[in-house]
Design a protein that fits this description.
GAF domain-containing protein; 4 helices; Beta-Lactamase; globular; about 160 residues; GAF; GAF-like_dom_sf; alpha+beta; FRMsr_CS
């Protein structure tokens, strides 16, 4: 059973604990929606200075809104559009310090200032993306990127 934990170590150690919690929380579960729902809740509880945490799932050649924590969001995003669509098209993590400087940024929440999007690739096919927004510019650093990519790796292990 998952229990809330107070994080007291370094940023890296805190992320490692978060990833272990995700692994334990999703162990034995096969339903993707259930896994992504708990993953978004876990991240929302863990991360500070974020205003949206969730997933978009690749369906019929576009991203469709999946489980999330935050204000209502855009429902569909085309490949190559905005930060999420760019992440899918390029199959790379997009770490954007100032979303207002990103060409074609899709503003679902006017409070968002920075964003990180990690593609979810399962068996060499795009499954979707993890999308996290912050009301703070330059909120996400290289450490966040490394550990959020590892977080997605745990998701893929349980969903793949």
């Amino acid at each position: 059973m998952f229990q809330s934990t107070v994080y007291t170590g370094t940023k890296e150690k805190d992320y490692e604990l978060l990833i272990k919690q995700l692994d334990a929380l999703t162990d034995g579960e096969k339903d993707d929606v259930a896994i992504l729902s708990n993953a978004s809740a876990l991240l929302n509880q863990f991360l500070e200075e974020v205003n949206w945490v969730g997933f978009y799932i690749w369906k019929e050649d576009e991203l469709v809104l999946g489980p999330f924590q935050g204000l209502p969001a855009c429902i569909r995003i085309a490949s190559g559009k905005g930060v999420c669509g760019t992440s899918v098209k390029e199959r790379t993590t997009q770490r954007i310090a100032d979303v207002h400087q990103f060409p074609g940024h899709i503003a679902c929440d006017a409070a968002s200032q920075s964003e990180i999007v990690v593609p979810i690739i399962i068996h060499d096919k795009v499954f979707g993306v993890l999308d996290i927004d912050s009301p703070i510019k330059n909120r996400f650093d290289e450490t966040d990127q490394i550990y959020l990519e590892k977080f997605v790796g745990v998701l893929v292990k349980h969903m793949g």
